[in-house]
């Protein structure tokens, strides 16, 4: 996912952003961002609030300008574009927002028509296009309602229809599901997936929820302190998270967190005397369903104690996560055995 | 009250309505764009022109600082140059309009500033020009607040219009002073006050009705 390549819908090349402060110094929001978003992908950027993900997203349609490097969308340099050229790029980039940003004074229809009016589309072409979009997002019955009369999920569907109105090639999603309940989040994510599949639209989304990436993102990047600390296909990152920030985001979503009574006693170093090693085992792909613990017992005679675990799907792949404790003396041997069979292991600590 | 006072009251009411209506229309024509500009021209905003914004802000404040009765007298030469006379309803419209413009401008500015910044961002993301954002987003979204602001302006102008009697502006206020006060006809004074109260009530109700009609920010019962 680095450097410029032909299959990229968007490319960040050495992008940095510094804001001037009142006292004359500068605060760095983003530094050294190199990322290319594959054509037709759903790419998610995850980070905590203040990590710079929002600034990064806003550079794609020129709402923010880089102070260093270039942002290319479909080969066009956004940061250098002004006036009509910038507005032309923006019409090719749809955007949806956490708080929907719908006009209270316009009906559903009127809101969806707005980008078309702005683009100067003749009125007689706007009507059928709006009908088609309303249908596409499943709001046919609600065309004449005002936003105040809609639920959060319905509002976001209007936001999506509006973002698609001018047939953009790229859709930006700014925490689009963060204001929604889990069930509504699912339906909105499904809609985004369908749009990505049916229209071949590249989606770049930012979120602070790993579950969103797990459910829809084919590619992901983790941003921390204004830098991208890890990036790649979502499945690879889930399977082999390299950066501590990634792991901490993952622990929230993979279900396998240490039970309190263990976490409280966890020691970073092996203590003297008999102890147990606590490890995380990640199952992926075809190995996710192998009976590895049974084999560990029969082949090596090691009894592993299951502390926590689950199996779920990341995209189309099964993905499992187990937290085990086992005799510290045999830990290295057990881990080597599991690694040899295609699993990933990580030592979390020790307990007496 | 003798019957021959009725036509006098009727004429005075029409004169007041005429002065207020024309100065409101002219005041809106001047005040709406000025208010929109004030609301969008600070540094980094849509029409970023911080210096022009500051200068216009000062002019608006200065105009609003001058007591209306002094404004009326102070601009008599200007009024005479503009309408050929400084006496009568047409002459009174000049200071009324001049007072209405900065007042309406501030009301519009406040209404526009209340519009959620996210809507401006969304419109910018659609590739809207600053003028499109103003026409299609800011003004329609601010319309309920603008309507209430204009109501307030009209009510104030009805009050101001009573003062232009001082320069022969005619209208209800003038009638009240000349007949009710100077000729000791308290029934005329009472009639004038009652008519003014009714006028203000009507304007207020009309304004609130219109503001509620254009306000779609809260769900309303649709009967199905």
UniProtKB/TrEMBL annotation, chain A:
Keywords: Amino-acid transport, ATP-binding, Cell membrane, Membrane, Nucleotide-binding, Translocase, Transport. PROSITE patterns: ABC_TRANSPORTER_1, ABC_TRANSPORTER_2. Residues 10-250 form the ABC transporter domain. The keyword Transport applies. This is Methionine ABC transporter ATP-binding protein. The lineage of its organism: Bacteria, Pseudomonadati, Pseudomonadota, Alphaproteobacteria, Rhodobacterales. GO terms for molecular function: ATP binding. It comes from Paracoccus rhizosphaerae.
UniProtKB/TrEMBL annotation, chain B:
It is found in: Cell membrane. InterPro entries: AA_ABC_Transporter_Permease, MetI-like, MetI-like_sf. Residues 13-207 form the ABC transmembrane type-1 domain. It is a multi-pass membrane protein. CDD domains: TM_PBP2. Keywords: Cell membrane, Membrane, Transmembrane, Transmembrane helix, Transport. The chain crosses the membrane at residues 17-39, 51-76, 82-105, 145-168, 188-212. The keyword tRNA processing does not apply. Belongs to the binding-protein-dependent transport system permease family. This is Methionine ABC transporter permease.
